[in-house]
Amino acid sequence: MRSASRGAARVHDVRRLRDMIRAAVQGGRYPDGHLPAEAELMAAHGASRGTVREALSLLRAEGLIERTQGIGTHAVVRPVDERLIAAHGATSPDERSLLNRRTRPWMLDRSEIPAPAAVADRLGVPAGTPCLRLEYVALYEEEPIWLATNYALFPEAGRLRDCPFVTDWYALMADAGVEFGQSEFVIGAEPADPLIGDILRIPVGAPVLVTEQTIADPAGRLFDLAFIHTRADRFRFVSRGLRLPGSEA
C-alpha cells in the first residue's frame, strides 16, 4: 500500500513539475529558448533527477521542447499571448498580436452556398438562406496557425466576398466596411484528428483550441458564424476580470 502511495505521489510530482516548466517556457522566462540543466531544475524545484527527466519527456512529447545530447534542452516554439478582448475584435490588438495584420490567408473556399440547417439555426434564419462560406488557414511566417470556416449572411457577405483578403479576418471586415457590434466565443479543446493535423501541420493527437464564434451587427443581428481550430502550441488566450465593490452574489 505504501509503495502504491509513493508511486501515486511521484506521478503527481511529475505532473506538477511539467506544468510549472511549461508555464515558464510559454511565459517567456527563458528568452533565448534554452532551459536550465537538469541539476538546476532539480535544485530550483526540489525534485529528483527522475522526476525532472519524466517531466521533460512529457513536454517533449507535447512538442514544446527538444532535447539534444551535449547541447541541452531548448524550447521549440513559444506561443503568442492574445488578449481575449482583442481576439473578439473589440479593441485594437497589441503590437505582437497575430491579429495585427501579421498573418496572411491561405484560401480554401470563398463561395456562395445555401446556409446548412445547423448554420441557419445558429444565425436565426431559414435553412437554405444564401450565405458566403469563407474558409482559410491563417499563416504566420508561412506556418499554419489556425483554420477558420466562416458562414456570413448578406448583405455583409457581399462586401466580404468582393474585398481583397490580405491579412486577418478583422482587417478584412474593416477593409470591406463591415461594422459589427458584438462577438461571442464558445471555446473548447480537442486532439487534432488526421484532417486537422494535416492542415495545421501538427501531429495527430496534438492539442487544438476549438472556437465557435458568432458576430452581430451594431443592432444585434447575427450575420456570421465561424468554426475555428487553433494550434494550442502557438496561441494562448489571456483574459483579466475586475471585481467591482458591491458585486458579491
From TrEMBL:
Transmembrane segments: none annotated. GO terms for biological process: negative regulation of DNA-templated transcription. InterPro entries: Bact_HTH_transcr_reg (IPR050679), Chorismate_lyase_/UTRA_dom_sf (IPR028978), Tscrpt_reg_HTH_GntR (IPR000524), UTRA (IPR011663), WH-like_DNA-bd_sf (IPR036388), WH_DNA-bd_sf (IPR036390). Residues 10-78 form the HTH gntR-type domain. One of its GO terms (molecular function) is DNA binding. The keyword Transcription regulation applies. Pfam families: GntR, UTRA. PANTHER family: GNTR-FAMILY TRANSCRIPTIONAL REGULATOR, MANNOSYL-D-GLYCERATE TRANSPORT/METABOLISM SYSTEM REPRESSOR MNGR-RELATED. This is GntR family transcriptional regulator.
